[in-house]
Design brief:
heterodimer, A: mainly alpha, MetI-like fold, 2 domains, 14 helices, flat, B: mainly alpha, 13 helices, globular
Chain lengths: ~280, ~300
């Protein structure tokens, strides 16, 4: 018996050790880019492993047009997140509580919206935006992100609301609250963690977008991901700046991921996450 | 509850649902219909009159089916999808089996394994551009140091697609890992213990006891990744730009180039329509397989 337990313990230790080593290997490419951002361009081309860290790349970014594109990303993502929650949360609640005949079909439609290739939307959006003067505006981008977030909000929040027992709401109704009064006073407060996670997921998805911003913006509303690509095309290959910009763009996403990891996992599984 | 209350409740729910459905209809059905229409015209912004030219409505589709480039893009797409789905399922399953132990430590590690999936795709592309650029790549230096130097993998037509597939797999294994892990944790413990007492080995345990419980999840996850693989864009844009010689030009990328580089808007619309049709068929397959329910739990 004793030998058995010792073998089980050795197995456990081996699993933990190999999982840890694998994680280090998986994260190594991202860490490599992050350390590159603290090297000078000459240093990046050199072969030395150790180096004297410098903030030159970040300073160069600060004085260029990058901060403006960072702000555009923040504005478009935040606006789209707030708008999609305001629209999507009541819809999710209605779908969770109201069984009507077409509800399965509406759900499938929402799923297809998430699945459709972005190229299919960019062509009509580009034509319509040219006509409406929304090309190269933060508003135009926020509207696109709103559309795609909306499907996600409805899909994930519905599963959170379905988990809230109806008896709680019914008690509020008996006390004289209307449907939405009961929702605001009872169901929504209980679902706050889910709402926060959904909001963060929406923000990350908008923040991460590259394709729509690439096509629907030019110079005035460039987002941070597009700005990174511009460093590759127009200013030669400035690896230090590219790495620094990449590090700055991934930092908010990493911070959010670790902040709400357990809810994020639920959100990803409910939404079958997409970039 | 009184009838008036039920009717009022229905009205309230309708009020909550309508704005969202209206926005979704306007922003998704609208563009879809517009796309279908432009796909029937030779639309190009150089000649605005082409927007209403319906004289040969199927010409774009005919042109696509007889275009060697388009057919090549479909073949490249199929190859890339097959490679990435298989790699991601295999790696995700392997990792999930490893991490499927009750342990605080492994729970913390799991969050770390999610990182590649949540990173902005453009950052993923930059990360792999660094790894695939021989001048600065730690991978190329390491290979040279152990005496196996290799030329750039992304400028070689024979390896470029595999290079993309490896980067895509790195990005999306977290997703398959997450889903398979969730399914594994739902496998009841009793049959597993009974099998252990009977003295089966690890492989038999997996094949006969665990696999039957998780196979429906594996199918759904594979379909999800298959659909998503059709959208692959930032990696190809940054790493290879569709090259060399079309070796990594998937259908999505081909449509992008035709539309936004060459201004063949009508032709691009027709190809995008074909892609939507494909995605729709796959989504329908997912919902038939009970995918939405599995994903929901």
């Amino acid at each position: 018996m004793n030998r058995h337990r010792r073998r089980a313990q050795a197995h456990r230790l081996a699993v933990h050790a190999s999982a840890f080593i694998l994680l280090v290997l998986v994260l190594a490419p991202a860490l490599w880019m992050a350390q590159m951002s603290f090297r000078t361009n000459d240093d990046i081309m050199g072969t030395a492993f150790l180096f004297a860290p410098t903030l030159d790349n970040y300073r160069a970014l600060w004085t260029g047009s990058f901060p403006a594109s960072f702000v555009h990303s923040l504005e478009a993502s935040a606006a789209a997140t707030v708008a999609s929650l305001l629209l999507g949360v009541p819809a999710a609640y209605s779908l969770a509580r109201w069984r009507f005949r077409a509800s399965a079909r509406v759900a499938l439609w929402i799923l297809v919206t998430r699945m459709a290739p972005p190229i299919a939307f960019t062509i009509p959006f580009f034509l319509a935006y040219s006509y409406l003067g929304l090309i190269d505006t933060v508003t135009g981008l926020a509207i696109v992100y709103l559309t795609f977030n909306l499907a996600l909000v409805i899909w994930t929040m519905r599963s959170f609301f379905e988990a809230v027992p109806r008896s709680l709401e019914e008690a509020a109704w008996i006390d004289g609250c209307g449907v939405w009064g009961g929702f605001l006073r009872v169901t929504l407060p209980v679902s706050m963690p889910g709402l926060a996670a959904t909001a963060i997921l929406c923000f990350i998805l908008s923040w991460n977008d590259f394709f729509f911003a690439l096509i629907l913006t030019r110079t005035r509303a460039t987002t941070a991901p597009v700005a990174i690509v511009n460093f590759m095309q127009y200013e030669g290959w400035e690896w230090g700046k590219i790495a620094a910009a990449g590090t700055l763009v991934m930092l908010p996403v990493l911070a959010f991921t670790f902040l709400v990891r357990s809810y994020l996992v639920r959100g990803i599984m409910a939404g079958g996450l997409k970039e | 509850m009184p009838v008036g209350w039920a009717a009022g409740q229905r009205r309230a729910f309708l009020l909550g649902l309508t704005p969202s459905l209206a926005v979704l209809a306007l922003m998704t059905l609208g563009p879809a219909i517009y796309l279908l229409i432009t796909g029937l015209t030779p639309l190009t912004p150089v000649h605005p009159a082409t927007a209403l030219d319906f004289s040969a409505p199927l010409q774009n589709y005919r042109a696509a089916l007889s275009s060697a480039e388009f057919l090549n893009s479909v073949r490249v797409q199929a190859e890339l999808s097959l490679i990435t789905v298989v790699l991601q399922l295999a790696a995700g399953l392997g990792l999930a089996l490893l991490l499927n132990l009750p342990s605080r430590f492994l729970e913390v590690l799991r969050t770390g394994f999610l990182v590649p999936m949540v990173l902005p795709p453009i950052v993923v592309a930059v990360i792999w551009k660094v790894l695939y650029t021989p001048d600065i790549s730690p991978m190329h230096r390491l290979l040279a140091w152990i005496g196996m130097p290799v030329h750039s993998l992304i400028t070689n037509a024979g390896t470029a697609l595999w290079a993309i597939a490896v980067a895509d797999t790195w990005e999306w294994v977290p997703f398959t890992l997450l889903m398979v892990l969730a399914a594994l944790q739902m496998v009841p413990k009793e049959p597993e213990e009974a099998a252990r007492i009977d003295g089966v080995n690890a492989l038999q345990l997996f094949w006969h006891v665990r696999l039957p419980y998780i196979q429906s999840t594996l199918v759904v996850v594979a379909l999800f990744r298959l659909i998503d693989s059709i959208k692959a864009f930032p990696l190809i844009y940054v790493l290879t730009d569709g090259g060399p010689g079309g070796a990594t030009e998937v259908t999505n990328y081909y449509a992008f180039v035709q539309t936004f580089n060459f201004s063949y808007w009508g032709y691009g619309s027709a190809i995008a329509t074909l892609m939507i049709a494909g995605v729709f068929l796959l989504s329908w397959a997912i919902s038939r397989l009970g995918g939405s329910r599995t994903i929901h739990e």
